[in-house]
Amino acid sequence: xxxKSFGVRTTALRRCKSSWTVAVALMASxxxxxxxxxxxxxxxxxxxxxxxxxxxxxxxxxxxNIHLYTVAAAQFRKTIETTxxxxxxxxxxxxxxxxxxxxxxxxxxxxxxQVKKGAALALVDSPDFAAAVSTYSKALATARTNRRLAxxxxxxxxxxxxxxxxxxxxxxxxxxxxxxxxxxxxxxxxLQVDQQTVKEIQEGRPISHPGAVIRSPIAxxxxxxxxxxxxxxxxxxxxxxxxxxxxxVWVMAQLFGSDLAAISLGDPADVLSGIDAKNFxxxxxxxxxxxxxxxxxxxxxxxxxxxxNFLKKQMYVRVRIHASQESTGLLVPVSAMLRDNExxxxxxxxxxxxxxxxxxxxxxxxxxxxYDVAAGLQAGDKIVVDGGIFIQFLQTQ
Length: 397
Fold this sequence. Notes:
Elements: H1 2-49, H2 60-63, E1 67-70, E2 73-76, E3 79-88, E4 93-97, E5 102-107, E6 114-115, E7 120-124, H3 127-158, H4 164-190, H5 195-202, E8 212-215, E9 220-225, E10 232-233, E11 239-244, E12 248-255, H6 257-262, E13 268-272, E14 279-287, E15 298-305, E16 316-322, E17 327-333, E18 338-339, E19 345-350, E20 356-360, E21 362-367, E22 370-375, E23 382-386, H7 388-395
Antiparallel strand pairs: 1-23, 2-17, 3-12, 3-16, 4-11, 5-7, 5-10, 6-9, 7-8, 9-11, 12-15, 13-14, 13-16, 14-15, 17-22, 18-19, 19-20, 21-22
């Protein structure tokens, strides 16, 4: 009985082992099948990624719709477009400094006022002015007295009334007094004292305007008022006003690299304000010898006539400078340029076997409807200028 029972257990164990083997085999088979099913997709993607654009050959009928252009060197003049900021013409603008010390008693003008040369801008209670007037009055009286005494001694000398030495001394005193008078007058002029006041002092009459007056050294527009009533001014150091002639302004443009090489002094320029289609004509007046350390650009000054004072300081404008000197390059029509999937420029170039191949190019300056090709083409190459999109379509099929 024990032998029979042992045989039954052995048979059952063999059956279980056989079933487990079958299960493992089925799982392995399923895994292999799933991996095998995915493999073709991976291979397809690898093949698709490795496909590269090949040359395109056209039929005779298709070729009739293609137009070619032979690349050749050509000369052209660049038009450089950049930005700029308006500034005063510093040759026609000045900062008015206080010519004397003292508190400002009254301001006579406001920003925007038109003034003539010598016009009064402000009144100042200045001890410097009073001292200068007093010095001139005394020097004037002393010079007159000494001159009269010198003339009298000269007459007496002719009649042997005085010695020669006395007459010489009188003449020396008169000359010295006249020199002091002239110096005192020059001091008044430097303080911008008007001719009417000087005439009143010379005639011994009371001064009609006893206060000191700050006057405009040029004719123009008051563009800045830098002082207030009661402010204490220091002679020669306190800026009071800025007066500028706005009929002509400067536009400071910024140029970079190769654009700078094409520009020279005297080149014409257009200034576009962007307001009501207001455009102005100008001329390149100066090219800086220094590079701006912040922008790495070179400032270029354009002188612009400003009718109606339309252009204001610090106004941003666009500037187009028309180069007068010629540049040489390979000009290619814009219609020949295409873009690939990476947005790189290319053209289709005709090969000796009659096919067309992509040729990537580096674009430079655009002159109207043509590009100056900096790299990628040579003179004599024939490229497609009409029908390139059709060739690109065929190449992607």
